[in-house]
């Protein structure tokens, strides 16, 4: 995994708290509250999860995910969350299709690497595991001889 490099980086440093301040042409981070979280099965037997989101001003938006059952265990109505993605304004409402969602953290990373999915393993999972590897990278013994490492 140490030789699996990111394909891009994303800047998540600015957190917006109002839907009215969003630019629908780019990805952004929005802090909001989950007002309602529901799930249903589509005609094609896919799991559809919908969340009604409320911002700091009381404005509403919708987030939609397909086949992400784990979201039902991680999040519930009333949770404050961070949504990262590109908003869309269609059918008279603001929506966030298939965005990233997470609980706010005290030590949130602002610039994060983006990894490609690998054989059905999500890139976000790969990013988390590689970050865990960074904490123990000093324990890996360097096999390059000392004279070669210091040679100019």
Describe the structure.
With 152 residues, the protein is mainly beta. It has 2 domains: 14-106, OB fold (Dihydrolipoamide Acetyltransferase, E2P), CATH 2.40.50; 109-140, no CATH class. It is 14% helix and 37% strand. The strands form 2 sheets. Strands 2, 3, 4, 5, 6, 7, 8 and 9 form an 8-stranded mixed beta sheet that branches. A two-stranded antiparallel sheet has the order 1-10. The radius of gyration is 20 Å and the shape is elongated.
In brief:
This protein is mainly β and 152 residues long.
Which terms summarize this structure?
eight-stranded mixed sheet, 2 domains, 152 residues, OB fold (Dihydrolipoamide Acetyltransferase, E2P), mainly beta
């Amino acid at each position: 995994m140490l030789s699996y490099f990111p394909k891009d980086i994303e800047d998540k440093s600015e957190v917006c708290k109002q839907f009215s301040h969003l630019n629908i042409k780019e990805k952004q981070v929005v802090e909001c509250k989950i007002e309602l979280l529901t799930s249903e099965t589509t005609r094609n037997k896919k799991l559809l999860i919908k969340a009604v989101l409320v911002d700091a001003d009381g404005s509403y938006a919708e987030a939609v995910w397909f086949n992400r059952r784990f979201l039902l265990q991680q999040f519930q109505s009333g949770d404050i969350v961070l949504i990262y993605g590109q908003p869309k304004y269609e059918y008279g409402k603001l929506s966030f299709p298939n965005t990233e969602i997470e609980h706010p953290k005290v030590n949130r990373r602002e610039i994060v690497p983006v990894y490609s999915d690998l054989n059905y393993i999500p890139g976000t999972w790969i990013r988390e595991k590689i970050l865990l590897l960074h904490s123990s990278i000093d324990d890996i013994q360097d096999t390059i001889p000392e004279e070669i490492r210091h040679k100019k």
